[in-house]
Specification:
By secondary structure, the chain is an alpha/beta fold. It is built from 7 helices and 8 strands, in the order E-E-E-H-E-H-E-H-E-H-E-H-E-H-H. The strands form 2 sheets. It has a 6-stranded parallel β-sheet, with helices on both faces.
Length: about 180
């Protein structure tokens, strides 16, 4: 199984992922536990792709700078980074499925669609991925994205729960949870 980390630039609310500039340094507002989750994926040999949906349309250098800042901050190299697909009200303009297909075929050895999980806070991203037969997991933001959590095949409240979802799909069916979260 592979995990895809996405973000919703319109509904950050301080709890999701978003690009910010702090002082003179570029950094991301990352949910607690994200770096640990990416390290966990690496140690398990699970690939992670990034499909950015930054609301930046004209400045590809800024998008590249933002993605580089994320990789540096997380000390993680994504297996695949798609071109930016800015959010649009017109779903027909979305490149999400095209980007997922390219990643699946060329970077993830043509694995089945239901072996790739799309992880997001955004209901539109999750709906589009689900309609295309990809696994989905919603990151719950309190009650603000309840629709996303409801339509996703999985939902989590924190990154530690994401590890359990991954293990369920990868075949580890039992683990002493008190030991696991220490």
């Amino acid at each position: 199984m592979s995990v895809l980390v996405l973000q919703n630039p319109e509904k950050d609310g301080g709890a999701g992922l978003g690009f910010t500039s702090v002082g003179g340094w570029d950094s991301w507002n990352i949910q607690q536990g994200t770096k640990g989750l990416l390290g966990y994926l690496h140690t398990r040999g699970i690939k992670a792709g990034l499909l950015p949906r930054l609301n930046i349309r004209e400045d590809s250098m800024l998008v590249e700078k933002a993605i580089h800042a994320l990789s540096d901050q997380m000390q993680y190299e994504f297996s695949y980074i798609a071109t930016n697909d800015p959010p649009s009200l017109d779903r027909s303009k979305s490149k999400l499925i095209d980007n997922l297909e390219h990643m699946r075929v060329y970077n993830f050895n043509s694995i089945e669609r239901n072996d790739i999980m799309v992880f997001s806070t955004d209901e539109n991203i999750l709906q589009e991925a689900r309609d295309a037969d990809f696994l989905t997991c919603a990151f719950k933001l309190g009650g603000s994205n309840w629709k996303a959590a409801r339509l996703a095949s999985n939902s989590v409240k924190n990154m530690d729960e994401m590890k359990l979802v991954i293990e369920d799909y990868n075949g580890i069916s039992f683990r002493n949870r008190s030991t696991f979260f220490q």
